[in-house]
Structure formats: structure tokens, C-alpha cells
Amino acid sequence: MRAALAAAQAAAEQGEVPVGAAIVRQGTVIATAANAPRALHDPTAHAEMLAIRAAAALLGRDRLEDCDLWVTLEPCAMCAGAIAHARIARLYYGASDPKGGAVEHGPRLFGQPTCHHRPEVYPGIGEAEAGAVLRAFFRARR
Amino acid sequence: MRAALAAAQAAAEQGEVPVGAAIVRQGTVIATAANAPRALHDPTAHAEMLAIRAAAALLGRDRLEDCDLWVTLEPCAMCAGAIAHARIARLYYGASDPKGGAVEHGPRLFGQPTCHHRPEVYPGIGEAEAGAVLRAFFRARR
């Protein structure tokens, strides 16, 4: 989660909503990414998506059954869908997102019968720090 | 929808589940894409995602409020989430997908209170042809 938090801080410095993600395989961080839809001109460029895509490219396959995803914020529906498609083994996330989250809020995607893979989910990891980065960002923009 | 169907056929010829998508702006097709997660080693590389990313890159922005998305199959949760993030104006799709769709099935994403943009939705466009391409593909692989 340290790598994900560092990526979140980097996103904030670029004026992006500060969310960071990391993919861990066999105890090693193999990809990290910061949320960057504005900089990349890509509405799909959430931190989780970029980290999953980077890890899949690195490993040369489209499934990451042996990988875990760490992210500072509860994933949205798009990212939760990608996590399922990628067959991520374990999902660790920091702050809850009642407004846009899709794991414990809204569609609760991994509980849907149309969701074909459900990772183990560990919420609240590094929550205080992840939430503080987000709150500082939104406070500064008000 | 002709462009999307042609992309679906191209996906089938590459051994990918045959789904195709096109982005239309001001009456012009500005991006088309075929489903390609295996070829690209990218679990997020559904036709809709690739078409949205290509259109956003072309226009140099992360929102596509003035664009419509045409796709041969009902979008999944990941793609429906991306459609909302991209602020797509109108969604036209072909075949329904009771197993993985997230528009009229499963989470019915655009009806969730955590979904911040809801496109106009037109299902069943070119449904017969889109469904035939999918059925032929799965029949050949059995």
C-alpha cells in the first residue's frame, strides 16, 4: 500500500484526483499507477486500470490470477469490472467511496450473479492516510 | 452499426469473442475497435473501451459529451462504467447479454445512484446480425 499511496500523492501533484494503485505478484510490486484521466485524455485511465494494463503487458497475458491489487480508494464499477475480467486474486483498498464505489456501495459488483470472478476483498487498508490525501486535495480545490 | 459489425467480424477472425464498437460524432465515425483482450494482453481491451480511448485521444480530452457509442453487444459493468465516465451521449447496442451485461441485466449500472452520468440507451439495434456473429463464433469453438 506504500507504493499505491505514493502514486496517489503523485496524482495530486498533477491535479488529478489522488488515487494510486499497485499490482503485487509473489511478494513483489510489478506495476504502480496514478489516476490520470485528464493528463492522458483517457476517461478509462483510473489508477487500477493503468496498473492492471501495465501488469498484463509485462506478463504477456490477459489474466492475472496470481496477482493482487492494492488501491487507495474503493474501486468504481469500471475498475471492479476490470478486476473481475483480470481474475485478480486479492483486492486490498484504503478509503471507502460511498459516492462512486462499486464494491461495498452501489451495485456491489462482486456480489452480482453476472460477475464471473470475485477476488478476496480487504477494505480499510491504510484508510486514514488514503482518505487524508483525498480530503487535502478536495479542500485545496474548493 | 455497420462499422461496429465489421469490427466484430474482424475480432472473430482473430479468435476473439466477436464484439465491435464505433464512436460517432456529428454524424461521422471517428473511432472503431474490435474486442482484443487476448491479442493485446489486456483484460480491459473490450471493443467499447478501445473505441472510447481512441476517440478521447483523437479529440484530446477525457469527456465525450458530443459522442455516441455503437456496440454489437450489451456492455458489461466495466464498459458501462467507462461510458458513464466518458459522458457518452447515446448508447446504441445490438444483442442483449443476460450472462454478462450490465445495462438491462445484473447491476443495471445506469440506474444506480452511484452512476453519475446516464446516456440515452437504444438496445436491439442490428440485434439479429450481431447475435448471429456471436452464435457462429461460439458454435465453431464447441
UniProtKB/TrEMBL annotation, chains A, B:
GO biological process: tRNA wobble adenosine to inosine editing
Active-site residues (renumbered): 48
Domain CMP/dCMP-type deaminase as annotated: residue spans: 1-104
Subunit: Homodimer.
PANTHER family, per the entry: CYTOSINE DEAMINASE FAMILY MEMBER (PTHR11079), TRNA-SPECIFIC ADENOSINE DEAMINASE (PTHR11079:SF202)
Role of this protein: Catalyzes the deamination of adenosine to inosine at the wobble position 34 of tRNA(Arg2).
Name used for this protein in its record: tRNA-specific adenosine deaminase
Gene: tadA
